[in-house]
Amino acid sequence: MRINPNISSDLLAALSNAQQQQNTALLQMASGRRVNKPSDDPTATAVLIQNQAESSQTDQYLRSVQSVQAQLQTTDSTLNSVVLALQRAISLGVQGANGTLSDANRASVVGELSGIQDQLIGLANLTFQGQYVFAGTASQTTPYVADATQPSGVRYDGNTGTNSIAVSSGVNMQLNLPGSQVFSTPGSDVFQAIHTMIVALQTNTGADTAAAGLRTAFDHVTAQRVFYGNALNQLSSQQTYLNNDKLLLSQEENTVGGADLAASTTNLLSAQTARSAALSAAGRIAQLSLFDYLK
Amino acid sequence: MSSLFGTMSIALSGLLTEQGALGITTNNVANANTPGYTRQRPVLIEGDPVLQGSLTFGSGVVLANVQSLRDPILELRLNDETQQHSQLDTMVSAMQQIEVMFSGSNGSLGTQITNFFNSLQQLSSNAVSLSARQGVLSAAGNVANSFRTTVSNLRAQRSSLDLGVGQTVEQINVVTGQIAKLNQQISAIENLHQDAGTFVDQRTTLIRQLSEMVDVSVVKSDNTLTITTSSGYALVAGDRSFAVTNQLDPSGVQHIFSHGADITAKITGGSLAGVLAVRDQKIPALLADLDTLAGGLATAINSAHRNGTDLAGMAGGDFFTPPPAGNVGAASSMAVLITDPSKIAASSDGSPGSNGNLTQLLAVQNQTVTGGQSPINFYADMVFGIGSDVANGSAERDASDLILRQLQDQRSSLSGVSMDEEAANLIRYERSYQAAARVITAISEITDTAIQLGRY
Fold first, then answer.
1. What is the nearest CA distance from B111 to chain A, expressed in angstroms?
2. Segments making up each domain of chain B, as ranges
3. DSSP letters along B274-291, please?
4. CA of A38: which chain B residue's CA is closest?
5. Residue of B nearest to A72 (CA)
6. What is the DSSP letter of A291?
7. Which fold has domain A50-251?
8. β partners of residue A128
9. The complex's ipTM?
10. Distance between CA atoms of A13 and B421, rounded to whole angstroms?
11. Burial letters for A156-166: b for 16+ Cβ neighbours within 10 Å, e otherwise?
12. N or C: which end of chain B has fewer CB within 10 A?
């Protein structure tokens, strides 16, 4: 059989093949990725797109958790101040209910209680990043204002709305309690309790009942504070979960789309070997024909 | 018994024939690298015998013909495979350009959609923040922009492919015209029962060029050669060629006509088929997918947005431009309607601080609003489709590449010029020439002897 005398096209094909493999291996090593364009592995590309979306979402959940955490911590420590102020009010009430107290001393206790009332209004009007925390969803309205026409002397201008925020896919967390629930629930209204105590001391009657009212209010606020404690706990466990999730996603990304460096290196080396072998073969073969031996 | 001068003429026939054979060898060597060249060999036959009495004497050698060594069946196979290869190659390279538009992980449509939902999530931790609201608007703007850019890139790709159609049609006509002229010359030579080698080589090369552009089938009968498209429209019949024409379709792309009929959809091979597949099927399908995605996303976001109220307590309107009926052109017309960040309807209870409606807007991310899938899954599926078109196309092209190379190997093993062989022939013909020349010298001496006979 006659053999194809022109081997250059086969040789060129072999060379370009080796070159192609070499380039692919180099690109994988340089980018650290096995999938550099959709056609490298269409299935992996689809998985990677979903993975990237999820991972970017997880980053965003983490940012949300962090910003919410700051808000909840501020709120929680403010409620701690409220609890301390109420404790002081209770002990002042007990002091004032003591019948042996002089009028002047009672007046000074009353003065101190009014001070606490003002302090509590200030605390209930807590803002975080310019938003009133205890105004329900009316976060741009000052929730508590002194108003003599109200039985407690304080008016609530907020609403009863609450906000929640997604902290991972499908998990929503309530962010706030409206002031009406924390401070001014009828029966355990903080401002009403202090106001009643002030009136009791001024009139020197019913101080015991007023002191009991203060305790009820104190218990109520303490109970409400538990919400924030729980929320903070939930956030920190959520944070751990999200960080794990991120790790898993990036592991998956690496498994699906990352380059196997050992394999790429081997591929590069074998492509180089194949190429230089083809080159040196080409160099030798192309030189000779029978014409060289004609004298 | 042959006469001395008869012997002289036999030797002369040898000289002339070897000279001719040497010429053929030289021509082979000279054309060793000429594309489409088919090696030739001399066809030597014995001269007619001379009868003398009861004896027949040979009368030397005749160079009867110059034969080109080609296998017509192999050439046909090469045409077919060239059509297939060229179609795949064109399609893959066009799809690779499209693939680039969907490759970047940053700034791609998918990333922009995710960023948009992230900006909504960011806003939900502080629903009144104007900067976070501005963030939502610019992320939404990026989404709309990405859709419009991708559509306009695809359309640009489509028009440049369309431009290629017109150019290919022109080239086809040039080539078929040349083939018709060659047919004329070849049949004139073949009618004389001579080998039209060089012209046939040229025609074979031209038919191969034609096969790179369009699917043709070649029918050879007697001395005429007919070329039709594989759907049966004649391009060349003997010495006549029939031009294909192109003209703008109402949809704004070039359609191809032969003998007055629109053959655009009937072209199944060559670069033209590759271009048409991408221009008429792949790109329109991608544009429709983008419309589904843009339309589904905009409709879902709009309807969730209308359920909420903005910072001023007013009911939310449309967030994106409402998509046209049936989502036709939804991607190219996508735009954010809201320019004032306070108009984002984040609130579900009318208070500015509420973020209740953001939960609804965010839910769109995982809802099956686009072709029965969530937006990002739909996008991932689209990219998967493009990737597998390129990957499968490349694999088929590589296979076709291999087949084509093997066929070319086969062709070359029959028709290619081998230097070793030519060198050997050269020696052979040279030696024969020398021998014939030596014979002439010998006859001359013998003749001289014969002349000297009478001198005594």
1. 7
2. 4-69+417-455, 76-384
3. HHHHIIIIIHHHHHHHHH
4. B387
5. B125
6. G
7. f41 fragment of flagellin, N-terminal domain (1.20.1330)
8. A131
9. 0.85
10. 25
11. bebbebbbbbb
12. C
